[in-house]
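Input record (one chain):
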Amino acid sequence: MLNHAAERPQAAALREKEYGIWQTTTWGELAQLVRDLAGGLAAAGLQRGQHIVVVGSNRPRLSACMLAAQALGAIPVPLYQDAVAPEFVFPINNADVAFALVEDQEQVDKMLELREQCPQLAHVWYDDPRGMRKYSEPGLASLDALAESGRAYTAQHAGFFDAQVALAGPHDVAAMFFTSGTTGNPKGVVHTHFSLLDRAAAGARFDKLTAVDEVLAYMPPAWIGQNIFSYAQWLACGYVVNCPESAATVTIDLKEIGPTYYFAPPRIFEGLLTSVMIRMEDAGRFKKWLFDHFMTLARRVGPAIMDGKQVSAVDKMNYRLGDLCIYGPLRNTLGFSRVRVAYTAGEAIGPDLFTFYRSIGINLKQLYGSTETAVFVCLQPDNEAKADTVGVPIEGVEIKVAENGEILVKSPGLLKEYYKNADATAEVLTAEGWYHTGDAGFLDAGGHLKIIDRAKDVGRIIGGAHDGAMFAPKYVENKLKFFPFIKEAVAFGDKREKVCAFINIDIEAVGNWAEKRNLPYGGYTDLAQKPEVYELIRDCVDKVNADLAIDQMLAGSQISRFLVLHKELDADDGELTRTRKVRRGFIADRYQVLVDALYAGLANQYIQTQVKFEDGRTGMVAADLKIVDAKVLPALRSAA
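The corresponding structure, as predicted from the sequence alone:
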C-alpha cells in the first residue's frame, strides 16, 4: 500500500458508490487514512498480536481499517455480516477479541447484544453513522472519531507509524479466517503475510493482472475468496477495487463499472443466466428466433473460438454477426463487456452453464483452492478451460493423490495453523508439509485436476442391484443443481440400498415457469407441492439418472425417490453454512422423519418445521409432502 502511494499517489485505489455517485479514494488518500486509523487504534490500546474483528460489506474505510491493524502488527478477523449475533460469540471469545470494526447500525446492535457473553469486547467503531445519533454505549464511537484521535496520537508520537511498519516480517500472522464449518464450531485459519501475498502474486502472474484492471467487490469479505481478489491481489497488483452501494444494486453497479477481472461462485452465474432467460421468455417472436438462432451457433463454435482453435470462415463470419446482434449486447447487459478473466469456484459448475458463458465470448474459467490454501492451488489456462476439471497446479504448488483418492497439496500458501487447535492442525498438515484437502479426485492425462466429492462423504451402496457401488453425494447434488429449476439438493444413500434426495426449487425460475402456464400459487410452500412442479423436477432427476447410468463408477448413485422440501434450506436455520455449503448431517437429523418416509416407500409425509425470519422472530412452516419415484436405469457402457 505504501509503495503504491509513493509511486502513484493520485491513482485510484478504491471506489465506493454512495447515493448513486461513485466516490474515489486515491492511494495517497488511502495511505493517510491508514496512518490516522492506526494512530487511533494504538491510542485505544490495540497491540501487536491482538485480534480485531471486522464485520460488514466491502467498504473502503473497512479495508483501510484492516491495513491499519496490520500496520500495528494486529490481526484482522473478518466475520460474515449476514450472521446472527450468537454466531459471533465463538470466534470473538476464541480469539480473545476486545476490538471490533463494523459497518453500520445493524452490526453495532449485534456487538452490543454480545457484551454479556463477550465481556472483553470493550471497543466498537462504526463506519456508517446513519441511525447512530442516540447511541451512547461505553466504548462505542465512529471511525471519524477514531481517525481524529489517531491524528492527535501521531502528532504526539513522531515516526510512530513507520516504526511499527518496520517491525513487520513476511512470516508474521496477517489475518485469520474462520471456516464456515459443516460440523461443530468453526476453526480459525491462520495465514501469514507471505502465504496470502505469495499466492495473490502467483495468481496475478498466471493471468497477467496489472494496475489497470478493475474489480467489483461484492461477496462477503469474511470469505477468503473475496479477501484474496479484493484485498491481497489488490495490494499485490495495485488495481482498482469498486464497492457497490448495496446488495440490491450489484447488478446495476456491475454494468456501470464493467470490471476486467471477475469472480463469483456458480450460483451467481446461474442467477444471471436465469434472469436473462426469464427476460427472453417475455420477448417477441422475432427476438426469440434471433436469440435461439445465434445461441445455437455460439454453442457450436463459440468455445472453439474462445480457445483459439480454427473454425471455418463462414462460421467465423456468422459468429461476428452474432456478436454484433446478440453476444455483445448480452455481455453488456450482464456487465461483462470488459471482462478479460472471469473465475468461478466453490462448487461444480454445470457444463451447459459453463459453455454458455464461454460461447458468448466471456473467458470464464475454474479454479481450485480453499481457505487453508489461500485460494490458489489450481487454475485453468486461457485455452484449456474444461467444464469437468478445475485446472492445473500453478507456480509453487505440488499435488499428489493418496491411496484412498484424497488430494494432497504442498504450497507456499498453506495455513500456518488452526488457531488454538493443535489436534486439528496435525490432522491436516503432515510433517513433510502436505495438506490434506479432504477432497477426492485425480489428475487427468493432461495434468488437470478433477474433483469427485469430499473424501469423507464418498460412501457405498449396500444391497440391491448396485451393491458395493460408489456413492458420491456432492457429485449427484451438483448434477441436480445444474438445472435452473433446482436451487439446492441433498442426497442420501451411504450404506443403503438406494439413493434418495431432498430438493429445493428455485422460486424465481419455477415461479416464472408457473406464471407462463397460468399456474397460480401462494408462495414457496404451495408452489413446491404442485403436481406440475413435481413433474418438472422429475424430468430433471430422470436426466441426471440417465447421465449417471453411463458412468461405470457412479451408476449406483442414481436417484430412486425424491421429494421437494416445503422450505428453502437456510443458513439462519443451520441447514447451510454461510458459504452455502449443505450441512448434510444436520439436515439428516432435522428431517429424519422425511428420510425415513423416503426409504419406507411412503407416498407422502406431513412435517412441521420451525424457521427463523430475518428480523429474529421464529415461526412454523408445515406441509404434507409428496414423495415420488424416479426412473432408475441399468448401468450402461459409456461411448468410447
